Amino acid sequence: MDVISGEGLSLSEITVSYRNGHRPLDRFNLVLPKNSITCIIGPSGCGKSTLLRAVAGLVQPESGEIRLDGAPVRPKDTRIGFVPQNFGLLPWKTVRANIAMAMKLAEKGAQPKSAAEREAEIARWLAAMGIAGLKDRYPLSLSGGQQQRVAIARAFALHPALLLLDEPFSALDAMTRESMQQLLWTSWREHPATALFVTHDVEEAVLLGERILVMPKSREAGTVLMDNPASHLDWEGRRESACFFEQTNLVRKVIRDKW
Ligand code: ADP
User: Fold this and answer.
1) pTM listed for this prediction
2) Secondary-structure percent of the chain, ordered helix, strand, coil, rounded to 5
3) 81 C-alpha vs ligand 1 centroid, how far in Å?
């Protein structure tokens, strides 16, 4: 984050407790520059989804402050595009209507798009995700991987300032996953947003993260925020490069120490 302009994402001293006594975040701090992409990796149950839900304004921290580009994040903040683990699609609306509704909500206060502009944007993202033919289907008639792609198309169609992705490619087969990773990278380069991307996959984190946040099993071990030089390489050849290999080894070493 640019300390002078206040741009970027900052979490200061965030504590989140659930009613059952679990406290996955305890005075958690994180500062990320505007339009950077950070991958979060950590063992199951360490608080990754809680972190994303808190940043999305869906879980109210009991203390601390979350700011995006200088202004506090509010519940249903229209600056945020969120791809939750369960996709968050409304089952009674078609794919097209799911995306159109989210776009209308995000336009609140801004210059509204015409219906034709909105339809063109929806068509463009569905085509990019390889699911143009599904536009009039209902979510429950789609496979998990197809629903996941609808949720990603919806998040991108909002052109959010902050993009939150909770294991967005987990339901995809290996080849689709690789093409989605590339699509995410090129889309994010074309429409930069501050992005937090949760993954279980070390290779995926090194492929996509300018920074990699390793969350530990127990909070006492402390989080580690690593710069990832592999993210500066051209996409073509990144996965095969020596730098990529070194970085995945480095992340695995940190994971061995922390988990
Ligand atoms: P991760 O995404 O890293 O798997 P979560 O953020 O989902 O971790 O969960 C962190 C901890 O908080 C876990 O111990 C989990 O059981 C607990 N937890 C998550 N959501 C809830 C909830 N809604 N109510 C109570 N406990 C929860």
Assistant:
1) 0.93
2) 40, 20, 40
3) 21
